[in-house]
TrEMBL record:
The lineage of its organism: Bacteria, Pseudomonadati, Pseudomonadota, Alphaproteobacteria, Acetobacterales. It comes from Muricoccus vinaceus. Keywords: Membrane, Transmembrane, Transmembrane helix. This is DedA family protein. The keyword Disulfide bond does not apply. InterPro entries: DedA_domain, VTT_dom. Residues 33-145 form the VTT domain. It comes from the Bacteria. Pfam families: VTT_dom. The chain crosses the membrane at residues 6-22, 29-52, 83-105, 126-149, 155-173. The keyword Transmembrane helix applies.
Amino acid sequence: MAEFWAEWGALAYVVAALWAFFEGETFVLAASAVGATMGVIDPFLLMGAVWLGSFLGDQTWFTLGRRYGPRVMKRYPKAEAKMATATSMLLQYGTLFVLTFRFLYGIRNVAAAACGLAGMGKLRFAALNFIAAGVWAGSFVAAGWYLGALIGPERLFHVIAGGALLVLAVVLFRRFYRRRRSARTVPVI
């Protein structure tokens, strides 16, 4: 990551913004931790880049949900369950949901589309999304920065690799558990 930033310079912040456009928690944490240990990344530029990327990404999903949501739901019934969950949370929590959904792993993009599908006002969503993207960017850059400063450059790779392996293990366990559970519910003929 430090080599990437040193080689790409200012364009690395554009890549960070593009990464945050889609998701990016892990990338932001790693980049800011490397910035703290190696000194090649400006935390304020990183925060601004991922703030903008996250904001624009969710605005895009909101617009797509508003414009194409009903047609997409008919074509992809599996997405309907996630959309129903996000819409239910939106109706129950409203503003609080928009301010916090990007912190809930796996529903960020769907949640923004659900806000559009549910008919939330464009200006209201844009204002809440801008605030939430800033809080998200600031908190993940700060967390990564302090984590990097705390563990130092020697152990940074091991901590990131260990975290990635832990996430992979959890994902594989959940997938195995779901398959096993669904296999038990299928009637034998």
